[in-house]
Amino acid sequence: MWSALSAARLRHLEGKQEAIDITIISPQPELHIRPRLYEADLSGMNPSLVELFKAAGVRYIAGIVQQIHPQDHAVAYTDANGQQQSFNYDKLILASGSTLFRPAIPGLKEHAFSVDQLSEAQELDQHLKALAQRPASKARNTVVVCGGGFTGIETAAEMPARLRAILGADAETEVIIVERNDAIGPDLGAGPRPVIEQSLRDKGVILRLGDAVAAVDANSITTASGERIEADTVIWTAGARASALATQVSGERDSFGRLHVTPSLRVGDSDIYATGDMARAASDKVGNHALMSCQHAMNLGRSAGHNAMADVLGLPALPYDQELYVTCLALGTGDAVYTEGWNREVKMSGADAAALKHNINTLWIYPPQADMDEIIAKADPASRPVQYR
Predict the structure, then answer these.
(1) CB neighbour class for 383 (10 Å; exposed up to 12, middle 13-18, buried from 19)
(2) Is 112 helix (H, G, I), strand (E, B) or coil?
(3) How far apart are CA 319 and CA 331, in angstroms?
(4) Local structure of residue 88 (DSSP, 8 states)
(5) pLDDT, tens only, 60-80
(6) d(CA 63, CA 77)
(7) CA gyration radius, the chain
(8) Is-contact 185 153, C-beta < 8 A?
(9) Which SS3 state, helix, strand or coil, does residue 259 take?
(10) Which residue among 18, 46, 98, 117 is least enclosed by CB atoms within 10 Å?
(11) In this structure, is the dihedral angle defined by the CA atoms of residues 253, 5, 36 and 107, taken in order, positive or negative?
């Protein structure tokens, strides 16, 4: 979305609306608000982009891209009717994101839920609500969250209240995080860890650290150490990998499958740009790289769209950079922790951080209005990210 809007912005400013086409191929003309899918209320998580694309002069094609043919400057896709189609391009922006990494753990695919995609979060929600119809048991009343990273923490912190709302305030419930590392939030560092640990303890969330999930069945998990934990609800949150479309493009990839890109987000010297979770992009000049997060994806999108359009128009590229880095981690209703810098220095926690997280989740990561003036303002790659304080 941001790539298309930024490209449309530059095209509009250069007065080239009639000369250059911008086309998006995507399964639905919606923006799925993926960072919020751990929440209990899933309404409003897929705002329509139809009117926004009309306002920007962006053509939308309903389809799923299956093949990229760089030598032919073409993509092959399956349209909404299941028919195979081909589309030619001058410049291609790969913005197909990432999906949850699901290793070959026995029973994981069959029995574990996730909050990776909207349909999966909805499936989990239906399952949780149906628990009230089952006979009371330890397995019914237990939720195991596999993975103690950003998504795992946010999901687990919501679960005690969700279970009480479904099973009753007096139900004896357990929420357990299983994390293979010896510390919760291993990628978040030591800065916010005491706040996270205290918040989880206050909510009764149990931590199983230094152990991994070895198998999942309909009513339990088995850990690598041999412990069996009874649970009718297992939620997998451990990691993401870039869309498999990245493997169809020549270029170096990192351990997440992301394509290495130049400062302009171009893949090598090709006519292909990668952005969002598809791109391994330097975010500053001291060795930090953009993460697989909306915070970086929004600015990466603006930069990729601008630079692809600048390439068409013969204008100079604007190198992507995003020196400001923050985290704002939800810790259940009315609770959060906010940090600044790559060392994640805690600046705010509790209710104040939760109010900030509410603004991020309900305002800042949503699409702009279907108005060209607002698109021009908000799709500018040279604008700085929101100063959260």
Answers:
(1) exposed
(2) coil
(3) 35
(4) E
(5) 999 999 999 999 999 999 999
(6) 6
(7) 22
(8) yes
(9) strand
(10) 18
(11) negative
Q: Say which CATH superfamily domain 108-236 falls into.
A: FAD/NAD(P)-binding domain (3.50.50.60)
* pLDDT over 70, % of the chain: 98
Domain 2-100+240-324 shares a fold with domain 108-236: yes
Q: Has domain 2-100+240-324 been given CATH number 3.30.40.10?
A: no
Q: Encode pLDDT of 291-310 as tens digits.
A: 999 999 999 999 999 999 99
Model confidence pLDDT, tens digit, residues 17-57: 999 999 999 999 999 999 999 999 999 999 999 999 999 99
> Which pLDDT score is estimated for 269?
95
What ranges make up the beta strands (E) of 83-197? 84-88, 92-94, 98-100, 142-146, 174-179
- As given in the structure block, the two tokens for residue 163 are 């279970």
Q: Residue 30 and residue 191: Cα distance in Å, rounded?
A: 36
Compute CA distances 272 → 69, 247, 259, 266, whole Å.
11, 13, 11, 6
CB atoms within 10 A of CB 371: 14
Which pTM value belongs to this model?
A: 0.95
DSSP E strands, 120-185: 142-146, 174-179
Residue closest to 231 by CA, chosen among 350, 146, 317? 146
Mean of pLDDT values over 249-256: 97
The residue with tokens 């982009």 is 49
Domains of the chain, residue spans: 2-100+240-324, 108-236
Let me know if 81 is exposed, middle or buried by CB neighbors in 10 A (0-12, 13-18, 19+): exposed
Q: How many helices (H) and strands (E) does the chain have?
A: 9, 20
